[in-house]
Amino acid sequence: SDVEYTEQVIGKVGGKSFEVKITGDWDLRTEISLFTGKPSNVMSVTPDKVAYGPRSDKADHWKSLGPMNLLVLAYLDDDLRVMRGNTSTDTLFILRRSE
């Protein structure tokens, strides 16, 4: 795995939060845009494992990653990455490098 994604989840019973770590592989490649028909740079995410508490399972069922499985790379620099959903122009991800 070459990436780790951490998510804070609030439990349905008792409202206590817990941390979930998802590992997987991210790949940059060029694909034809569904909207423009032109080549665009996309980030493909293949989740591998999800770990929370003492559990570790396959991550293919982790729903919060669904919108991030294939994203069009709109902007990238050393500290900021902006990506759009591959099938929706309304989905926008803005990620800032943490310290």
How would you summarize this macromolecular structure in one to three sentences?
The chain has 99 residues and is mainly β.
Please give a structural write-up.
- The chain is an all-beta fold.
- Strands 1, 2, 3, 4, 5, 6 and 7 form a seven-stranded antiparallel β-sheet that branches.
- The chain is elongated and about 45 Å long.
- It starts with a strand and ends with a strand.
Rg from Cα: 15 Å
Helix content: under 10%
Specify the overall morphology: elongated
User: From the structure provided, what is the oligomeric state, counting identical versus distinct chains?
Assistant: single chain
Class derived from helix and strand content:
mainly beta
Output mean pLDDT: 82
Largest sheet: 7 strands, antiparallel
β content, as a range? over 45%
Low-confidence stretches: none
Give the ordered list of helices and strands: EEEEEEE
* Count of individual beta strands: 7
Enumerate how many helices there are, as a single number.
0
What separation lies between the terminal Cα atoms?
22 Å
What are its keywords?
99 residues, mainly beta, 7-stranded antiparallel β-sheet, 7 strands, 0% helix
Set out the fold topology.
Layout: E1 3-10, E2 17-32, E3 39-52, E4 55-58, E5 70-76, E6 80-85, E7 92-96
Antiparallel strand pairs: 1-2, 2-3, 3-4, 3-5, 5-6, 6-7
